[in-house]
């Protein structure tokens, strides 16, 4: 990174090299975040189950108040309007209170309403009622109780109506949420993004000069007089050990090439100097 008076230049290559150089940090962050969300989804998120009952709208004409409708199997738009009318009746307080009473449910009207959803199936005269909860037996019981109560309630409100059960609900065999796989994948992605972001910030805030290449590329008008090599490197103790070992080896090889008479002269000279 280089700073001008008004701009900050970010070296993307340097950031990429920093990420590659700290790849262990990225992998570690991914593992930690993935394990964290995996544990959260496994031990702290309440599993939810769904039971679904299918109902069929079967009537050629009906009326609501002063408004009359006619419908046939070919009139999909009218069928959708009829289904939407039935869905409104489903979530009324009178209907759900009767479901609670007949099903002997231990919940309030608002709690039961939040558990129920309904929609048309592929824009046909069939609509589904789905019950979501944390107890698989309970959601199956509620869905089948609705299948018993709803046709009578619709017949009381809509004249000439007929609703038949296409398929009763069964006890769900598996939970619909949470998805442990999705939580884990999200954790891995979050860990990768966070670690890469931290590394990028570190690289951007780093204002040290690490090589002469940086000076040559960013300060072209200033001549580079010399560069001091890093004799120790990253692992200072190991590099220093091998540096001293190589130095002693070179010195020994040079000493062996000296003639014996010159070696004796040097020893005598050292002794005289010592005296």
Please give a handful of descriptors for the protein shown:
single chain; 275 residues; alpha+beta; Alpha-Beta Plaits; 3 domains; 8 strands; elongated
Describe this structure in words.
The protein has 275 residues and is an alpha+beta fold. It folds into three domains: 79 residues, no CATH class; 119 residues, Alpha-Beta Plaits (2-Layer Sandwich); 46 residues. It is 56% helix and 14% strand. The chain has ten helices and eight strands. A four-stranded antiparallel beta sheet has the order 6-7-3-8. It has a two-stranded antiparallel ribbon with strand order 1-2. The protein has a two-stranded antiparallel sheet with strand order 4-5. Strand 4 and strand 5 form a beta hairpin. Helix 1 crosses helix 7 and helix 4 packs across helix 6. About 2% of the residues have low confidence.
Summarize the structure.
With 275 residues, this protein is of the alpha+beta class.
Question: What is the number of strand segments?
Answer: 8
Q: If you average the pLDDT, what whole number results? A: 78
Strand order of the largest sheet: 6-7-3-8
Structural class: alpha+beta
CATH class of the largest domain: Alpha Beta
Number of helices: 10
């Amino acid at each position: 990174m280089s700073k001008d008076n008004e701009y900050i230049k970010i070296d993307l290559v340097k950031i990429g090299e920093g990420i590659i150089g700290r790849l262990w940090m990225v992998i570690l962050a991914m593992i930690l975040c993935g394990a964290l969300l995996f544990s959260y989804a496994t031990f702290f998120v309440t599993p939810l189950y769904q039971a679904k009952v299918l109902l069929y709208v079967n009537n050629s004409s009906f009326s609501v108040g002063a408004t009359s409708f006619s419908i046939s199997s070919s009139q999909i738009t009218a069928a959708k309007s009829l289904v939407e009318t039935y869905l409104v009746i489903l979530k009324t307080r009178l209907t759900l209170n009767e479901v609670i009473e007949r099903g002997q449910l231990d919940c309030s009207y608002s709690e039961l309403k939040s558990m129920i959803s309904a929609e048309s199936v592929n824009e046909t005269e069939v609509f589904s009622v789905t019950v979501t909860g944390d107890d698989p037996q309970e959601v199956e019981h509620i869905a089948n109780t609705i299948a018993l109560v709803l046709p009578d309630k619709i017949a009381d409100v809509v004249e000439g109506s007929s609703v038949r059960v296409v398929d009763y609900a069964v006890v769900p065999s598996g939970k619909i949420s949470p998805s442990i796989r999705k939580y884990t994948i999200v954790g891995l992605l979050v860990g990768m993004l966070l670690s890469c972001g931290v590394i990028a910030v570190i690289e951007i805030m780093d204002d040290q000069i690490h090589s002469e290449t940086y000076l040559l590329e960013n300060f072209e008008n200033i001549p580079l007089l010399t560069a001091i090599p890093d004799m120790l490197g990253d692992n200072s103790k190991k590099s220093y050990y091998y540096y001293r070992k190589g130095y002693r080896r070179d010195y020994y090889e040079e000493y062996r090439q000296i003639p014996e008479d010159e070696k004796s002269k040097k020893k005598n000279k050292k002794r005289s100097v010592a005296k």
